[in-house]
Specification:
Layout: H1 11-27, E1 40-43, E2 45-50, H2 63-72, E3 75-80, H3 91-104, E4 108-111, H4 127-130, H5 147-160, E5 164-166, E6 179-180, H6 183-187, E7 192-193, H7 196-212, E8 216-218, H8 224-235, E9 240-244, H9 246-250, H10 271-282, E10 288-289, H11 304-307, H12 318-327, H13 334-349, E11 355-366, E12 385-395, E13 398-399
Parallel strand pairs: 2-3, 3-4, 5-8, 6-7, 8-9, 9-10
Antiparallel strand pairs: 1-11, 11-12, 12-13
Helix pairs in contact: 5-7, 7-8, 8-10
């Protein structure tokens, strides 16, 4: 029998998982291969930050392809960001997305509602009408620039019992940048994005969260100042959590190449920032790891660092990347990794995860984007050798990969 190691699961769920595991194995003779100790079973992973691009941009990704790709990565639950067309800023617009989710998703997909109409930052969305059918509110892809608007959004979200999930970026500090404002940008004559554009808005939002009492979560933090601010805010009792992404923990600006697959927002920052993020993971300042899975077409990612679209694919490689670079190098334990990609996100976002994935942790593979299920193929890890292969994923007793 494959190993079901209780240390990977909350005690109250272990028996339930064992029952489900035995049930699915016994119901399908083709799964008898997993009756071997070489496989390890993990609870279904939870990614609170993905872009499935539908409705509006289905040439990049669909809910069907995105959810299947996530299942390939061991995920049973994901939260989809609202930079869509139409933007889910009203009940009517949100329904266009939830209708597709109901018919096409192979795992549990929880949509965000936008904070502002059209994510334009000019007028608050119809938060009350959407609240029942969304996981939280976010304008991901854009920072809310107005202090007063963010304050009002937090007050309304608190009243509705929902969290504000913020992409933090001060537009006036961007100056047309597209990679980190550091040594690589200076050496190769690129316009840089300063770290202050991220941490300055986090600083503002911490003050507003403390003032309003709103539950607040920070997306994809990338720099040391953000870690320090969030660490202090937690010590001060602010209701705050945050995430980072695998690429910020593994790569930095020294790994950049003149290719679009190395371009994401926020950008890969300095080696010092990367080490600060790792310390934030280890001391639990950073609560979870999300992928910011952001697929684009091959054409959109073929224009170099300056002109390519921001974003890389993430869900299919997240666990192997983190297992290879953090667990096997003894930076964190496997138990800590499961805490970061299952227990903490599920608890903070109130998601009940019903499912598990089966892995061969010793099997190696070479990253080949042509083998991705996702329609997005851009990854800075192309050609890397990683350890850990997902053999099957089950969600609600159904094999989804």
């Amino acid at each position: 029998m494959a190993k079901i190691n209780a240390k990977f699961f909350p005690a109250e769920k272990t028996a339930q998982l064992e029952t489900a595991f035995i049930k699915v194995l016994s119901s399908d003779p083709s799964l008898s291969v997993f009756n071997s100790s070489e496989y390890t079973v993990f609870p279904g992973f939870c990614d609170v930050h993905v872009h499935f691009r539908e409705p509006g941009f289905s040439y990049k990704e669909t809910i069907a392809s995105g959810s299947k790709a996530a299942a390939h990565g061991g995920y049973c639950a994901v939260c989809t960001m609202p930079n869509l067309n139409p933007v889910p800023d009203s009940a009517e617009n949100l329904k266009k997305q939830t209708d597709i989710i109901e018919t096409d998703a192979v795992i549990d997909v929880y949509p965000y509602g936008a904070i502002t109409v059209g994510e334009k930052g000019e007028e608050l969305s119809d938060m009350e009408a959407m609240a029942e059918n969304i996981i939280a509110f976010s304008d991901d892809g854009r920072g809310v620039q107005s202090d007063d608007m963010m304050r009002e959004a937090m007050l309304r979200a608190k009243k509705l019992g929902k969290m504000i999930v913020a992409h933090c970026e001060v537009n006036s500090l961007l100056n047309g940048g597209y990679i980190h404002k550091g040594s690589y940008a200076a050496k190769h004559n690129h316009r840089g994005i300063c770290s202050e554009s991220e941490w300055k808005q986090i600083e503002r939002d911490i003050a507003l969260a403390k003032e309003t009492g709103c539950a607040y979560h920070v997306c994809h933090i990338s720099c040391k100042e953000s870690v320090d601010l969030i660490r202090k805010a937690k010590a001060d009792g602010v209701d705050i959590t945050c995430e980072t992404a695998p690429h910020y923990l593994i790569l930095d600006e020294n790994d950049l190449r003149e290719e679009g697959r190395f371009k994401m927002n926020p950008p890969l920052r300095s080696a010092e920032d990367r080490l600060a993020l790792i310390e934030g993971i280890k001391d639990s300042t950073i609560d979870m790891i999300a992928t910011d899975h952001a697929p684009h077409s091959a054409e959109e990612k073929s224009k170099g660092l300056e002109k390519s679209a921001f974003g890389i694919t993430g869900t299919e490689l997240a666990f192997p990347l983190l297992y290879t670079h953090l667990v096997r190098k003894n930076i964190i334990s496997i138990e800590k990794l499961i805490e970061l990609i299952n227990i903490n996100p599920a608890k903070r976002f109130g998601i009940g995860i019903s499912g598990f994935s089966i892995w061969n942790l010793e099997e190696e593979f070479t990253v080949n984007p042509d083998e991705f299920i996702s329609m997005g193929k851009a990854t800075p890890f192309e050609g890397n050798t990683l350890c850990g292969v997902c053999k099957a994923t089950f969600c609600k007793d159904k094999k989804v990969y």
